[in-house]
Write a structure and sequence with these properties.
The protein has 1 helix and 3 strands; from the N terminus they run E-E-E-H. It is α+β, with helices and mostly antiparallel strands. The chain folds into 2 domains: 38 residues; 34 residues. The mean pLDDT is 83.
């Protein structure tokens, strides 16, 4: 069951409630007022999987490959720019 945080608009009491997705919690048990509980936003729980050893490339290696590819592209662009500037003069 999901966990939700509620705050009473009347007395400010904070409560953690476990209930189904379609269910609601509206009455404050502390001040005994009706329809005063407001659901608060909370950060969802995410479980990260550890990196597997069977991964073909590591992040560092992949980054180096991209850098080398971009260096080649940049070198070609510089040479083309030099040719265009020499042709214009």
């Amino acid at each position: 069951m999901p966990r939700y945080r509620y705050e009473c608009k009347n007395c400010g009491d904070l409560v953690i409630v476990f209930h189904g997705f379609k269910e609601t919690f509206s009455d404050c048990e502390k001040c005994e007022q009706k329809d005063t509980m407001q659901k608060l936003l909370s950060t969802p729980l995410t479980i990260k999987k550890p990196a597997t050893k069977t991964s073909p490339t590591k992040i560092g290696e992949l980054t180096k490959e991209y850098i080398e590819e971009n260096r080649k592209v940049l070198k070609q662009q510089k040479e083309e720019a030099k040719k265009k500037s020499n042709d214009a003069s």
